[in-house]
Amino acid sequence: MSSPKGASAFQVSVDAGSYRVARPETPQHIIELLREHEIQIVDLKFTDLPGLWQHFSITLPEVHEGLFEDGIGFDGSSIRGFQEIQESDMLLKPDPTTAFIDPANEIPTLSLICDVVDPVLHQPYSRDPRFVAKKAEEYLRQTGIATTCYFGPELEFFIFDSIRFGQDAHSGYYYVESAEGDWNSGADEGAYGGGNLGYKPRYKEGYFPVPPHDTLQDIRSEIVLMLQQAGVQVEVHHHEVATAGQNEIDMRFTTLKRMADNVMIYKYICKNVARQHGKVATFMPKPLFTDNASGMHCHQSLWKDSENLFYDAHGWALTSNLCRWYIGGLLKHAPALMAFCAPTTNSYKRLVPGYEAPVNLAMSQRNRSAAARIPMYSDSPNARRVEFRCPDPSANAYLAFSAMLMAGLDGIENKMDPGDPLDVNIYDLPPELAKNVRQVPGSLEESLNALEADNEFLRKGDVFTEDVIDTWLEYKRTRELDPIRLRPHPWEFYLYFDI
């Protein structure tokens, strides 16, 4: 992936005090930069309801100030979770503050993240996930509780050497291959010839080993440098716990909508850098049986101007009452939240005890077996935050972040008690105590039912409209639950073929 001439003009410069990134701010800035750096292609990106980026590209003569004011048309009926065919005409309006040089293209290309507009109503489109995030931030300000919500998600993902899968009326399979996989320790040759060089991370022992165990150091570093060129500040990267190429790259926290934008850029760059190296990146939560899955632990805090409202020098774990009420809201509404935060059938193969999975709806400090954790790395007031560990990277970040904020605000408004801290390994609690600890739902179906029963907190301020919630429920049930329910599972043949 080549960097076009003048790409450095779009590289970030970060104000250490505010963590704001210097970017083009107006349509005129964009037009001037395109001409100055001889960029001929502009790519317009937006997010469908499940959370996958969509795009189309235009040429330089089509980029003018009217594009940003009036938008450009597309067929909304071909986008998952959007319009019916009889109401298909929709508009995209690019956000000039999101510009970045696209690292996935050899032809110099500028990417812009767009908002979706209904051309008949002349209003933002209710099912545009980015619009939901905008409304969540605006609702926060309207409450007077805080001015800003910061998010810092930790997205984990796998990089495999290859993946094959398929299913039809009479067969079904998947096959994952990784030269790093512990299952290859006895192979006569490496995954693609050249001899078996050993150094396979053992199951659950992939956390932090140096090369040659960690074969993906340079690929992650390449991803990090491209993320920074695209305006996403990165703090750290490393190999994760699972064998076969599990990774984590941590972005610097920023505001809710901007972080959701960054998550989309993050996934896009990870997938394209892996492809450049002849590999494949996946954010599917649980692609491997017997080893750890990929989570998206979400650090979050509320601020009023420059004051972190989650800090109290005299509170438990240095947290304020407001922070604990926020946690109370997360725990109270967690079953419904999981419909957005763990939104796939595969998510619930991660949410089982024994794999650092946060199935227990409890509050703790330092303790990774609890759903809501207070990190204790620093005593700084600015560092006080809650880490909600239930989400995974299959989530649509715009919807998941917004839902968590709305649950937390409901907790604050109703002063919800999160319960006593459980600073123990909850997995090892004796049965008489463990039975008193609520757990996350055991399936996507349970989470969708919980969302259907508990969504009033999401509809405050019209942040999540009934239209969005109903469409989400219908899409997940008909496009994901039913197809999984109707197909035989390979393990069923092992269990039942001889019955």
| Relative strand content | 15-25%
In helices, the fraction of residues equals: 25-40%
The major beta sheet can be summarized as:
10 strands, mixed
Q: Which residue ranges are poorly predicted, with pLDDT under 50 across at least 5 consecutive positions?
A: 1-22
- CATH architecture annotation of the largest domain: 2-Layer Sandwich
Rg estimate, integer Å: 23 Å
Number of DSSP helices?
13
State the CATH topology of the largest domain: Creatine Kinase, Chain A, domain 2
The geometry reads as globular
User: So what's the CATH class of the largest domain?
Assistant: Alpha Beta
Arithmetic mean pLDDT: 91
Number of strands: 19
Account of the protein in words:
30% of the residues lie in helices and 21% in strands. The chain is of the alpha+beta class and 499 residues long. It has 2 domains: 7-125, Glutamine synthetase, N-terminal domain (Ubiquitin-like (UB roll), Roll), CATH 3.10.20.70; 148-160 and 218-233 and 246-496, Creatine Kinase, Chain A, domain 2, CATH 3.30.590. A hairpin with a 4-residue loop joins strand 9 and strand 10. It is globular.
